[in-house]
Structures are given as structure tokens and as C-alpha cells.
Amino acid sequence: MYDAIVIGAGPAGLQAALTLGRMHRSTLLLDSGEYRNGTVLHMHNMVGADGTPPAEFRATARTELAAYDDVEIRETAATSVTGVEDAFVVGLVDGSEVEGRRVILATGVADELPTAPGLQDLWGTLAFSCPFCDGHEHAGKDIAIIGAAPRAEHLIGLLGRIVASITVVPIGEKFADDDLRALEAKGAQVSRTPIASVERVDDGVRILTDDERVVAGVFVAAGAMRQRSPFAAQLGLDMLESGCIEIDEFGRTSRPGVFAAGDLAHRATLPGPMASVLLAAAAGQLAAVGIIQSLLAAEN
């Protein structure tokens, strides 16, 4: 039986495994090969690794973990989590099972993009959601924001000082007059008709509405996210309005022995998860520390 089973090998899971391994706690890290930033060419706003391809970051982390005898990595997906503290059973995709005293859920979330033909094909390379992650790369360039007006206003405030110009394009229905005026007051150009499609061109992204325009990149001011895995529902964990798992400062969930880290969870004092490689890794470290504290308490 492992001291801890970490499900998910993005930044949160990798850091959790490293922290547990350094404290000589037997740890199994399960890597399904699916990552929220799997289509991203370079990650940003990560000190010491700014501009690093995510795949390179993961490979470096895996090399570092290989130095720790107490960390085992399996290239497989988990399908279920059952049991109680000190006796969890994790089902694997091949039908086998592994047992652990504690579990960290680090499977992240999946983005559900708004309906716009071509958008999925651009996601992570020419279409983005986070100005902290991808705004600087569009400095002095023309961009578009597609989606709902309130979120678009927020993105204009963040990106306006970085880019050359912003065009806001609605999805589904045209903007109400009040929204249109508010967006224009922020200095943006506003399309009067909803988006028809987007596509990659040599100069960036071609956006089709009732006319055509080409921009360097697109930021999405709409869409949602969902839990990538079924484990929160299987375990009956307390959830927040954001759709994320509720945790405390050390990643503890409402179920004893189950911890969560990364984009799939956050504290109730926050409106949502902070989509950041750095913060996901920090959350993984805190969850690992929480597990170590929990194990020590049980052993004393």
C-alpha cells in the first residue's frame, strides 16, 4: 500500500510527488497523458521557466522525480477512487487496482469552448483565455476578443495597455446597445454581428462575421470548464459554484484522506481557480505537505 497516490501529472501532481518523495513517503504518480495545456506551445509567467514548452517542463520534472526511490510513475489513467482514509482503492484503466493511505486529485479541468467553428483548432496556439499567460506575446499587435460583454470589458482593461488594438466580437447574438456602448467606451472596436467562424492564416487568425478581419490572436471571453475526471462525484466531495472542488489551505477536501490540487480545486474565499503553472505547482506542494502532516498525526 502506498502512502499516497497522486492522480494526474501536470504541474500540481508533479510537484506533489516531488515533495512526497523528498520526505521518503511511498508515492504512486498516475499520468494519463492528458493535460489542460496539452496544445500550448510555450508556457509563460513561470519564473525560471518562462517560455518553456509544457512538454519540456514535464520531461524535466519526470527526470528529477527519477532520482527518488520512493516515487513510482505509471503511464496510465485512473478510472475510479473508492474506500476511506488509510484504505483507498484506485481503479486503473486496465482493470487492475492500487491501494493508498491518502489520495491527491490533480487531474485538472477541461475547457468547454463556445460554439464557433474553427476555434477548437486554434486553442492554445492562436486562441487563448489568460492574458497573464499570453498577453505579452501580443504586444503592439491587433487582437480580437470573442464572447460575452462583461468578461470582454475585463479583458480590455488587462490587454489594452499591451496590444495595438482590440476588436470585440459577439458569439450567437449581437451585443445589446448598452453593452456595445460600454465596450466602445473602453476603446475597443465592436463587431455588430456575431462570429461566423475563425481560421488560421499566415498573418494570424481570420475572423468572419458580416465582414472579414485578420488579427494576431484571439482571446476568449466566454466558455466554461468542467472537471476532467469523475472522482469528485464518485467521492461525493463538496463543490463550489465555479464547478471546482472545495479545499482548505492544505488541499484537504470534505472527505478525510482525499486532497486536491491545481485547476480542479480552490478555496471558498476565491471566485475560481487561478489558472497558472506556478500556482498549480504551489497547490501540489501544499497538498503534499497536508498529506505528510496527516500521516504523521495518524502514526503518533
TrEMBL record:
Domain of life: Bacteria
Reactions catalysed, as given in the entry: [thioredoxin]-dithiol + NADP(+) = [thioredoxin]-disulfide + NADPH + H(+)
UniProt KW Nuclease keyword: no
The protein's enzyme class: oxidoreductase
Domain FAD/NAD(P)-binding: 2-270
Assigned EC number: 1.8.1.-
Record-linked Gene3D superfamilies: FAD/NAD(P)-binding domain
Listed GO MF terms: thioredoxin-disulfide reductase (NADPH) activity
UniProt entry tagged with the keyword Iron-sulfur: no
Pfam family, one: Pyr_redox_2
This protein's UniProt keywords: Flavoprotein, Oxidoreductase
SUPFAM superfamilies, A to Z: FAD/NAD(P)-binding domain
Protein name (Swiss-Prot/TrEMBL): Alkyl hydroperoxide reductase subunit F
Species this chain originates from: Microbacterium oxydans
Name of the gene encoding the protein in the UniProt record: ahpF_2
